[in-house]
């Protein structure tokens, strides 16, 4: 890959989406990119490492929801051997699909690195394990991008998959170097086909799966937006003008009112499908392994089966069981006389599904959302910028939490209208603000926060602060918080 100073390659990670087919591990506030895989790593971490392993990377740009910023930052901080030279975050107040995210990233890269800089667009929820083959495909795509093409990556289909989009490959583009991955002019993009059509595509041999990864210069994609999606382009420009006022800031928070006017449309629909008939799109046929880890079947395939075809993670016992995947967190899961099931056991929810119906898991999420049940949105343990809390027990009138606060971290200055709180320190030291009083409490000490009382919890010590919180009141929802001051920017201006 050419890494000359005048033409840098800037990976852009798109991180969002609830991953509803992977419930109950993936939830709205802890979506698929943050879900630990069987090896313990997250898809977001693997994507960042894969991008940063490419030569000549000057900056890592991430477009994500504002609610995921601190979790994303923590993931990047944990990449011990792959720290980027620079990072930039474009934080969305809500999702507007991939076209808006890519357009804003292109405007950022053009302003920071010039219009000839190459963007490598990488969704955060893909799994690729063959780094060498991936890097080879990226080199080919970068060369095509520098020649003016809108490049994308296609994956040779291994089966007639109906859950992926397809790209029809036209004429082959001459290879610049020996042993390069083949590239073709993209004739057209095809949405997820029915099974019979997918079988035809597989037999034809000139169709590839649409991976959702792209490569182009900032100038090329911005020009394509102007020509093929003028309404979206016109709506994005005011959003960028507001962001550009921040200058070289590393974190850009997108204005919600301006962003609401941007059309909700994918990059494929907005640009690629319209540019392909004009011969503007090139597709690199990658030889690397690729999975969007879009279902429990895909997760199951990441583990080795036993002699009966059973797979899993955690404590499990299988008797007269075959073809079954079990994920267990903290409990023994026993199966007797069953086959072809997927069983996911978490602290607050259990999924039991037949392998033939895994695509319908998202309907469970829809039903929970319709009922207003928190299990579609939150786990029992919820990450926060300052640490995490775990709901230990909840019944009408009371809730018990375990709270862990990072060293040097601080919760917001806040109050609650409908609940009181009793704090008991288990380990560490807590600095407590209660109205005008500020005081310390240590292990085996406690304090009480009445309703309508301004309060703040801080950890001034050198070790994590662990405490038990007992809430009492007629309403215990997380939205009963009025913030007055917050170091993480969650308080209203």
Tell me about this structure.
The chain has 493 residues and is α/β, with parallel strands linked by helices. The chain has three domains: 9-286, Spore Coat Polysaccharide Biosynthesis Protein SpsA, Chain A (Alpha-Beta Complex), CATH 3.90.550; 296-361, no CATH class; 381-485, Jelly Rolls (Sandwich), CATH 2.60.120.10. 24% of the residues lie in helices and 32% in strands. The protein has eleven helices and 27 strands. The strands form six sheets. It has a six-stranded antiparallel sheet, with no helix packed on it. A five-stranded mixed barrel has the order 5-8-6-7-10, surrounded by four helices. A hairpin with a 2-residue loop joins strand 22 (430-434) and strand 23 (437-441). The longest helix has 17 residues, at 97-113. It is globular, with a radius of gyration of 25 Å.
Features:
6-stranded antiparallel beta sheet, single chain, Jelly Rolls, alpha/beta, Spore Coat Polysaccharide Biosynthesis Protein SpsA, Chain A, 493 residues
Intertermini distance:
45 Å
Rg from alpha-carbon coordinates: 25 Å
Q: Supply the CATH class of the largest domain.
A: Alpha Beta
Helix content: 10-25%
Spatial order of strands in the largest sheet: 17-18-19-26-21-24
Mean pLDDT: 92
Estimated share of beta-strand residues:
25-35%
Task: Report the total helices.
Answer: 11
CATH architecture group name of the largest domain: Alpha-Beta Complex
Q: Which structural category do the helix and sheet elements fall into?
A: alpha/beta
Low-confidence stretches: 1-6
Shape summary: globular
Total number of domains: 3
CATH topology name of the largest domain, in short, is Spore Coat Polysaccharide Biosynthesis Protein SpsA, Chain A
CATH superfamily of the largest domain: Spore Coat Polysaccharide Biosynthesis Protein SpsA, Chain A
The number of strands is 27
């Amino acid at each position: 890959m050419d890494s000359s100073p005048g033409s840098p390659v800037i990976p852009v990670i798109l991180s969002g989406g609830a991953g509803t087919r992977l419930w109950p591990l993936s939830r709205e506030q802890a979506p698929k990119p943050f879900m630990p895989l069987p090896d313990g790593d997250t898809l977001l971490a693997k994507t960042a490492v894969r991008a940063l392993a490419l030569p000549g990377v000057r900056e890592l740009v991430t477009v994500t929801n504002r609610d995921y910023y601190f979790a994303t930052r923590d993931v990047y901080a944990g990449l011990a051997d792959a720290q980027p030279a620079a990072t930039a975050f474009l934080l969305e107040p809500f999702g507007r699909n991939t076209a808006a995210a890519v357009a804003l990233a292109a405007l950022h890269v053009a302003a920071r690195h010039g219009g000839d800089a190459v963007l490598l667009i990488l969704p955060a929820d893909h799994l690729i394990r063959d780094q060498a083959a991936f890097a080879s495909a990226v080199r080919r795509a970068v060369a095509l991008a520098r020649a003016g093409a809108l490049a994308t990556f296609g994956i040779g289909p291994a089966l007639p998959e109906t859950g992926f989009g397809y790209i029809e490959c036209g004429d082959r583009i001459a290879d610049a170097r020996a042993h390069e991955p083949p590239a073709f002019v993209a004739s057209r993009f095809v949405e997820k086909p029915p099974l019979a059509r997918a079988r035809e595509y597989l037999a034809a041999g000139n169709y590839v799966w649409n991976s959702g990864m792209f490569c182009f210069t900032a100038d090329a994609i911005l020009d394509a937006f102007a020509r093929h999606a003028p309404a979206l382009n016109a709506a994005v420009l005011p959003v960028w003008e507001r962001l550009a006022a921040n200058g070289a800031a590393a974190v850009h928070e997108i204005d919600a009112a301006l962003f609401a006017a941007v059309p909700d449309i994918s990059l494929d629909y907005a640009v690629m499908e319209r540019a392909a008939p004009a011969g503007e799109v090139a597709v690199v046929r990658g030889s690397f392994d690729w999975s969007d880890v879009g279902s429990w079947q895909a997760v199951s395939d990441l583990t080795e089966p036993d002699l009966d075809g059973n797979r899993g993670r955690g404590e499990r016992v299988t008797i007269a069981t075959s073809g079954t995947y079990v994920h267990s967190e903290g409990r023994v899961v026993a199966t007797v006389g069953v086959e072809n099931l997927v069983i996911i056991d978490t602290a607050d929810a259990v999924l039991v599904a037949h392998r033939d119906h895994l695509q319908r898991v998202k309907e469970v999420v829809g039903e929970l959302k319709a009922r207003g049940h928190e299990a579609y949105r939150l786990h029992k343990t919820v990450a926060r910028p300052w640490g995490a809390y775990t709901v230990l027990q909840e019944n009408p009138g009371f809730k018990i939490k375990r709270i862990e606060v990072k060293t040097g971290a601080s919760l917001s200055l806040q109050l609650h209208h409908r609940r009181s709180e009793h704090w008991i320190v288990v380990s560490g030291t807590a600095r407590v603000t209660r109205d005008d009083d500020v005081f310390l409490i240590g292990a085996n000490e406690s304090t009480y926060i009445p309703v309508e009382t301004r309060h703040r919890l801080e950890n001034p010590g050198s070790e994590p602060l662990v405490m038990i919180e007992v809430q009492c009141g007629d309403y215990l929802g997380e939205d009963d918080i009025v913030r007055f001051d917050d170091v993480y920017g969650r308080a209203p201006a």
